[in-house]
Specification:
single chain; Rossmann fold
Length: 472
Amino acid sequence: MREKVKDFMEQYHMVTAGDRVLLGLSGGADSVCLFHLLRELQEPLGISLLAVHVNHNLRGTEAERDAAFAEDLCRTYAVPFYLYSCPVEEIAKKEHLSTEEAGRAARQEVFASCAREHGAAKIALAHHQDDVAETMLHHLARGTSLTGLAALRPVRGNVIRPLLCVGRKEIRQELESRQLSWCEDSTNGEDSYTRNGIRHHVLPYLTDEVNPRAAAHMAQASLDLMETEEYLEQQTQQLMERYASTEEGAIVLRDAVCGEAPLLQRYAIRHALEQLAGKRKDLTREHLESVRKLFGKQVGKRICLPYGITAVRGYETLRLEKQGTYPQKEEKAKNEKEVSISVPAMENEEKSLVFAGKAVTIVKKTPVFPERIEEKKYTKCFDCDKIKDGLVLRTRRSGDYLRVTAKGGKKKLKDYMIDAKIPREERDSILLLADGSEIWWVVGYRAGESGRVREDTKAILQIQLGISKEES
């Protein structure tokens, strides 16, 4: 078994020479077996071994027995040992968790803390093939993705699992052949924990009635699924670069993502949701599919998701936003004060100001016809003599309109924004050049007819917003 575990560790590059490896030593058969294997592999792999034991304070004297056993074992072989005590039952009540969940969280925190304190590069856990099979069955029955079916990985960050190449039966046989003792946890015999029920009833049936190597085959399938998941994650990263853009508190997916396979669409959506939520838990396949189907809905349709995330159908986009982020941005835009645009007194005189975080440059020019007036997306020219109340830069207000024809035909600003397919969530933050309620320029979009430069124009007002050289 030692050579088998060594080969497995090398296959997955679990350690490098010089690593200090911290073993989670419960005192049970699995961790005791891993203790002896790693102890014997210290020289061949160039590593050093440390051990940590967590007393969950759930089993009274039995828990104290396990802690004493682990400490004696380490003392016998001169392996540094660290003992921690955690009030798991108290943690479970406080955090509204099951004792199993609270215990797992406590162990993870202790292992990470102990590794940092004592300079351990890796944390070794004694999960084996039967644990993988039980986890797969548990996750599959509750509902999961490929990720859940490959939850116990050989390497995840600084956590390594060297025994995923062997099963529970092999571990017991190894200990018995060496005449090594271990501690039995009495709660392992109870069916009150779901995983114990799978261990005592489901997996034995599969082993006895279907295939003696059922657990090993499931463990191998888990490794295959892990590689599949890693490949899909790589593809997802490429999709996000191609089809997604990030804003403050939001991620926008373009409709072009719908040309990809449905599986990859769901992965892209999951990636976006996970970024916004900061976690993946509680994001189910149903959530991903409901978001994916939103691409086929009409503009403005929205659905609510876990962690305060909302998915909104836009014009050729799907916007995923975290509640409380974008509305604050809109409110800021609504409250932004307007700024007056004064006409320079002299020709070619330049005035500058800053509004809404953007540099604004204003220049007065004399037109030379038929020379072409240069205009770009963020640079527009207007007839100075057509100004009535005075030009201002601001955001939209009730009653705003554009003149859309040379004869004076009007269109409500709201109707124009709808026709121009400007997303609803962006409309309150778009800058406008206005003369009273008459909109001369929807910045970044179109200019109205009100201040249009014509052949009889005597003075031009050129306004440029400092977005970028390419866009201006």
